[in-house]
Design goal:
The protein has about 200 residues and is α+β, with helices and mostly antiparallel strands. The chain has one domain (about 15-185): 3-Layer(bab) Sandwich (minor pseudopilin epsh fold), CATH 3.55.40.10. It contains 1 helix and 9 strands. The strands form 2 sheets. Strands 1, 2, 3, 4 and 6 form a 5-stranded antiparallel beta sheet that branches. It has a 4-stranded antiparallel beta sheet with strand order 5-7-8-9, with helices on one face. The longest helix is centred in the N-terminal third of the chain and has 52 residues, at about 15-65.
Length: about 200
């Protein structure tokens, strides 16, 4: 009877070390771009949070048949609140609790908002923290309230830790009829529906 010699061969230590070195080089090349991706993801999270808060304030104004405001409360974070608007003090009412809040510790630690009350241009980014605290009030018909002296017209979600060349800035526009839109100023509206210009 003939028997075959089985030749079993394992992986040598040198082959394992070469595989580990290749994996380490690939990870070292991918790490910087993934860090920028995470930072830009935080910007999107902050912009979507502000967009949701503004839409909530508008809907609460319609639902409650009163003036409700969305207020950015802290220039060093992405904190905001939705509150009842006091027409006399031109601010959030202190007599009633806030309808909704987002604290500074939630979500996007490196993101900041920049605000302007009169729209200028998407070409010029708003500096992080400029114009904050600020608010936009909605009347009982869901329109931007003329009773508020300085309503937010545009919010830029920015990241001061990133180089502006790699930062993916997002803008939120609030129209006087109550329409709220988020867009990307780096994209052309003619070729991409997410674009601003």
């Amino acid at each position: 009877m003939l028997t075959r010699a089985s030749s079993q061969r394992g992986i040598s230590l040198v082959e394992i070390l070469i595989s580990i070195a290749i994996v380490a080089m690939v990870l070292a090349m991918a790490a910087p771009s993934s860090l920028v991706w995470i930072q830009n993801l935080q910007l999107r999270n902050a912009a979507e949070s502000a967009l949701a808060g503004i839409k909530m304030a508008r809907l609460e104004a319609l639902r409650r048949n009163t003036t409700v405001a969305f207020e950015l409360t802290d220039s060093a974070s992405t904190a905001w609140r939705v509150c009842f608007y006091d027409l006399v003090s031109q601010a959030c009412s202190t007599a009633q609790d806030a309808i909704a809040t987002r604290s500074a510790s939630e979500g996007s630690p490196n993101a900041r908002y920049g605000v302007e009350t009169a729209f200028t241009s998407f070409a010029t980014p708003l500096d992080p923290g400029v114009g904050v605290p600020a608010l936009v009030a909605f009347d009982s018909l869901g329109r931007v309230s003329p009773a508020s002296s300085a309503n937010i017209a545009r919010i830029d979600a920015r990241n001061p830790t990133l180089d502006p060349a790699i930062e993916r800035r997002l803008s939120i526009l609030v129209g006087i009829a109550g329409q709220v839109v988020m867009c990307d100023p780096a994209l052309a509206k003619a070729t991409n529906p997410q674009g601003c210009q």
